[in-house]
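The instructor's notes for this session suggest beginning with a concrete chain rather than abstract definitions. Hand out the sequence below and ask the class to guess, before any prediction is shown, which regions might be ordered.
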Amino acid sequence: MADVHANLPATRSVLDVLEEARCDEVIHVGDAVGIGPHPAEVVSLLVERGVRCLMGNHDELAAFGIPEPLPRWMSVGEAEHQHWTRSQLSDSQLATLKEWPYEFVRRCGPTTVACVHYADKGNGAFDYVAHPSSDDLLRLYEAVEGDVIVFGHDHQECDLTVEGRRFLNPGSVGCHEKAEARALVIESVDGTVRVEKITVPYDDTALLEDFENRQVPERDFILRTFIRRE
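After discussion, reveal the predicted structure:
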């Protein structure tokens, strides 16, 4: 799963379903925090459930702080939001985030599955292409070794096979226009990788209320841009 973004009800709902499915391992490919109103609760839940978490760009900002001077691409409002997110996390949670790796590779039968948040520019920053084509995917993940590449970051579902490599994005758990959490179950059946899409509805009442109750900075922009409820 990917991009739970501090959305507690969505995260809990999808983890419950994956637990019922008796998965050998649950992997979150980055951005546990940021955007949503429940950063501390989500990090606690992921740790309690034994989820293997990877570093995302929002996790990185929370763990290590915003660079100084403020990057040109970051608005003052976003900086305020990132400071708020970091302030919600305990010292032990921040230490936990700092330990999250950027890549995880797992064998699934004869297939190598590589999990990352997104492509690395090579200078310590995440690359980004809004709507990656087949050629974009090959370029972005050229340095990632794996038959199957699982990524997140752009919140969009993807399942493309290009030149023998399969590129999968489950779509964001926490940021979606519907109150639906998304994930993928990947398994090896008779030497072949099978992928099942999981969509879990959840009650988003507390999520929407807590943006206001907790005075989340940039909440109007977030609700309009990332949650997109009418």
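Then share the key points. Residues 8-20 form the longest helix (13 residues). Residues 8-227 form a domain with the Purple Acid Phosphatase; chain A, domain 2 fold (CATH 3.60.21.10).
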